[in-house]
Amino acid sequence: MKPGKILLFLLFVFLLFAFLIVIFPKDGVKISKDICLNFPDFKEVFFDKKTPYADISNIISDPLDSIKTELNIDSLLNDTSKASSNTLLKNIRKIEYPNNDFSILYPIFQSLYKLKDANELIRILHYGDSQIEGDRITGFLRFKLQAKFGGNGIGLMQLVNATPSASLIESVSDNCVKYTLIGKSGFRNSHNRYGAMLGYARFSPIIQDSSTIDSSYFQGSIHINKSNQGYANTREFQKLRLFYGFNRKDVKFNLLANKELLSSETLLSNKDLNIFEYDFKKVPSSITMQFKGKDSPDIYGFALDANKGIAVDNIPLRGSSGYGFSQMNFDFLKKFYELLNVKLVIMQFGVNAVPENEKTVIPDYTYYEKGFYNQLKVIKSINKDICVIVIGVSDRSRKNGDNYETNPNIEKIRKAQKNAAFKAGCAYWDLFEAMGGENSMPSWVFATPALANKDFTHFNEKGARMVAEMFYNALIYDYLQYLKLSQSGIGRLALNR
After folding, report:
1. Taking a C-beta distance cutoff of 8 angstroms, is the pair 336, 298 a contact?
2. DSSP H or E segment with residue 82
3. In this structure, are residues 38 and 28 in contact, taking their beta carbons and an 8 Å threshold?
4. CA–CA gap between residue 454 and residue 463 (Å, rounded)
5. What does the mean pLDDT of the chain come to?
6. Is 181 part of a structural domain of the chain?
7. Which of 6, 208, 355, 387 has its CA 20 to 30 A from that of 72?
8. Which of the four pLDDT bands, split at 50, 70 and 90, describes residue 38?
9. Same domain, yes or no, for 122 and 139?
10. Where residue 370 sits, what CATH number does that domain have?
11. Which has the closest alpha carbon to 399: 459, 458, 319, 455?
């Protein structure tokens, strides 16, 4: 082919390419729900620049294992500890406080300090979105806290979970129906008594008038087996507690362990929250709970705990941005928290506040700040000594050409969450910065081994453990500072309250 014809051919291809760039929609052509055709623009073709991903080498190479933190306890309590304390601080993303007042966490620090001499079980409730499903993040946090302060067991469990827990194998009868304020995986009810886990389950339909209950009997069951995948501390427990109520007729209840009948009870008809408790002489490998009656109680879940120490509960609310608390019956929620002896609530949300269309940028997140603040205000008003820590939204990437970059909404969500937390008198831990800041999620995805999934949103098991480790280090660092102040006399009043 002659040079002139080659030139004309190349010119034709270039013009065709330019024509496609001009006419192709910027948002691409949607082929199906999961497939969208995109075409690069002039900037991407001729001026494409690689997005600089965050350097997380220091996080991966030296995540500051909390064992090292524990070794610094003695030095942190001495006046000569400045050097070791400062070295420790460099590797910790500190918890932030409104007006730098970390005394807002004194109540939980005081409770932790007193556990060594107290015959008491205290609880930490870890609420979150799909980032914590399957006991991710919570599981390792529980492991570390129970190792330090005592306790064992997985804690609270719902009857119907969107994702199975790695720490427990649970199955329920097919007629078990979930009622929840969150997501699309259950039904709603008008009374709004959803409890601490924002949901409950029933094995019979809801009947508004007991006079309409016929002679039919309903049966339901819950079966629990130990899992070898979770941490060993979750497989050791001494106590079962079943939270139920509002059954209009008596219900026959059987508790079996290793297929042996341990207890047979009648759950009397009632209009309140009730607890069935059983102390095991030795830890069973399987537990079965059986129900039979003309009307099901509202079953709010069960807990497998120690008799004393600390319980850390994993409460994932798939699809939630942290809403739901202000919609519930406040008095019922307050009673539930009191029965659980809740001392700390961790709120970890944010990724669901990002629009589904990754190219959509919301100009103002004031609405989210107000809504999230209202939820925090409800929790804080239950008891003035319940502490709340907001774990800020993690990095979430969107694709830009061949590169991945932080979704522009993330920074606005972070700001809204922090403002809401400080306004409500809550502490704030910046997960976005802890994991490396802007464009850090690709670094977690492409790390060896990988620390996050290829949806560029969720951590995998290794990454979740690292997040839990970093948060634990931040919490324990401030706890040690609290002990240091108390020894010097500044915080002694709080210790002896």
Report:
1. no
2. helix 82-90
3. yes
4. 13
5. 86
6. yes
7. 387
8. low
9. yes
10. 3.40.50.1110
11. 455
Cis before 52 (ω within 30): no
Q: Are residues 485 and 458 in the same domain?
A: yes
The first and second tokens of residue 357, run together, are: 């269309």
**Total number of domains in the chain:** 2
> Is the per-residue pLDDT at 362 higher than 90?
yes
pLDDT the model gives residue 497: 41
Q: Are 265 and 253 in contact (CB under 8 A)?
A: yes
Rounded Cα distance, 417 and 322, in Å: 10
Query: What domain range is 82 assigned to?
Result: 57-151+308-497
pLDDT tens per residue, range 106-130: 999 999 999 988 899 999 999 999 9
**Residue 207: pLDDT band with limits 50, 70, 90:** confident
> Residue 418 in contact with residue 392, Cβ under 8 Å?
yes
- What ranges in 218-352 are assigned the alpha helix state H? 330-340
Residue 270's pLDDT band (cuts 50, 70, 90):
very high
Beta carbons within 8 Å of 212's beta carbon, 6+ residues apart: none
Which CB contacts under 8 angstroms, 24+ apart, belong to 76-79? Answer: 76/480, 76/481, 76/483, 76/484, 77/480, 77/483, 77/484, 77/487
pLDDT over 70 percentage in the chain:
78
d(CA 220, CA 171): 11
The structure's pTM equals: 0.85
Task: Answer for the pair 193, 247: CB distance below 8 angstroms, yes or no.
Answer: no
- Looking from the CA of 404 toward its CB, the CA atoms found within 13 Å total 19
- Domain assignment present for residue 64? The answer is yes
CA atoms lying within 13 Å on the CB side of residue 400: 18
Percent of the chain with pLDDT over 90: 68
Question: How far apart are the C-alpha atoms of 31 and 70, rounded to whole Å?
Answer: 55
Query: Do 257 and 174 have their domain in common?
Result: yes
CB atoms within 10 A of CB 186: 17
**Cα–Cα nearest to 116, from 68, 150, 70:** 150
Spatial contact of 240 and 287, defined as CB atoms under 8 Å apart: yes
Window from 58-62, 111-115, 401-405 with minimum mean pLDDT: 58-62
Task: Identify the pLDDT of residue 463.
Answer: 96
Same domain, 247 and 138: no
| Contact call for residues 172 and 160 (beta carbons, < 8 A) | yes
Whether 96 is covered by a domain: the verdict is yes
CATH label of the domain that carries residue 280: 2.60.120
